[in-house]
Amino acid sequence: DMFNWQATIMGPPDSAYQGGVFFLNINFPSDYPFKPPKCHFTTKIYHCNVNSNGAICLDILKDQWSPALTISKVLLSISSLLTDPNPNDPLVPEIAQAYLKDRSKHDQTAREWVQKYAT
């Protein structure tokens, strides 16, 4: 179906998600590209900008959307979020706090989740 895609993002090297394979669903609204696609992770991930339902908190998927953005750029932005989380705009405040207060423990938990759910 042309309006529902599955995408794959590899965990970026030098990130806590390295070695992981993450699947996402991309759902295109009927008024795409004037409205952003709905993207969510179907692979569980320990990340302050992704909740337990896989919803992603990313400005370009909301108010910063532009019809000029390609799906390739969207996926690149999601991949960048794995390297550089945004704990100041979290979907999961507890994970954001862990990221800010004890980065090594946060990264260890993220790596454990990669092993458990994304390999």
UniProtKB/TrEMBL annotation:
GO terms for molecular function: ATP binding; transferase activity. The active site is at C57. It comes from the Eukaryota. SUPFAM superfamilies: UBC-like (SSF54495). It holds the Pfam family UQ_con. SMART domains: UBCc. Keywords: ATP-binding, Nucleotide-binding, Transferase, Ubl conjugation pathway. Residues 1-119 form the UBC core domain. Belongs to the ubiquitin-conjugating enzyme family. PANTHER family: UBIQUITIN-CONJUGATING ENZYME E2. This is UBC core domain-containing protein. It comes from Alexandrium andersonii.
